[in-house]
Design goal:
The protein is α/β, with parallel strands linked by helices. The protein is built from seven helices and seven strands. The protein has a seven-stranded parallel β-sheet, sandwiched between helices.
Length: 247
């Protein structure tokens, strides 16, 4: 797929990894549709950055825990842009939830955003893409969906679900739509992390360093430009899953 002029919807793209992906793809000439839930000002700032660099884009609000809002989001994007070529499911909620103290609200918030939201975004986008002849869906999972992190059970369950969802959708949406996932390792630490904590995270990888958002963005560019990869999970973790006692 040639990215120039393509309409790309990125969920959770006001901040952090989603923002980096948006800026990277805007630099390739894609028309970026930013999605946000509560971070309106940050979404405005990201859109301003895109336009200041010569790119084009738009922004839409939706609570991905609510299917009716997802349906409205996809409809608005199609009405505004004419069609949707690429969906990147990047929206994610992440906070510590020891199993003994998980509440129903915690569970619903994490599963609702990270898995349920991604599923229904893909469902509505996939139906549209099929009707108009094709497209690409890329899901952001996590290595925690392969080997779970301690005290993050709902998050890891959701990310494992993203991996299974990717493979299932690759089968059902073929041959017109490719569906792949990326499972990052330590790319962006929490904003509250100290330098000592960041160094500790880096030491858990075989490469002894943190990854960068550009590592994820480059993989996404590859998946968008190639047309013979689907149902694949790309682990980008600096070898962390192979490192002893890393998780």
């Amino acid at each position: 797929m040639e990215l120039k002029g393509k309409n790309v919807l990125i969920t959770g793209s006001a901040t952090r990894l989603g923002k980096y992906i948006a800026l990277a793809l805007a630099g390739e000439g894609a028309h970026i549709i930013l999605h946000y839930h509560t971070s309106k000002e940050k979404a405005h700032h990201t859109l301003k950055e895109i336009k200041s660099a010569g790119g084009t884009g738009a922004m839409f609000k939706a609570d991905l825990r609510k299917v009716v809002q997802i349906q409205s989001l996809i409809s608005k994007v199609i009405d505004d842009c004419g069609q949707l070529d690429v969906l990147i499911n990047s929206a994610s909620v992440f906070f510590s939830t020891p199993i003994s103290s998980i509440t129903e609200r915690d569970w619903d918030t994490i599963i609702g955003t990270n898995l349920r939201g991604a599923f229904f975004c893909s469902q509505y986008a996939g139906v549209h893409m099929t009707e108009k002849g094709g497209g690409k869906i890329i899901n952001i999972s996590d290595i925690g969906g392969i080997v779970p992190w301690k005290n993050y059970a709902p998050y890891c369950i959701a990310k494992a679900g993203i991996i299974a969802m990717t493979k299932a959708m690759a089968k059902e949406f073929a041959p017109s739509i490719t569906v792949n996932a990326i499972a990052p390792g330590n790319i962006l630490p929490p904003d509250t992390s100290s330098q000592d904590e960041i160094n500790q995270l880096a030491s858990k990888t075989l490469l002894k360093r943190m990854g960068q958002p550009k590592d994820i963005a480059e993989c996404i560019k590859y998946l968008l430009k190639t047309d013979f990869v689907t149902g694949s999970i790309f682990v980008i973790d600096g070898g962390q899953l192979l490192a002893p006692l890393s998780l």
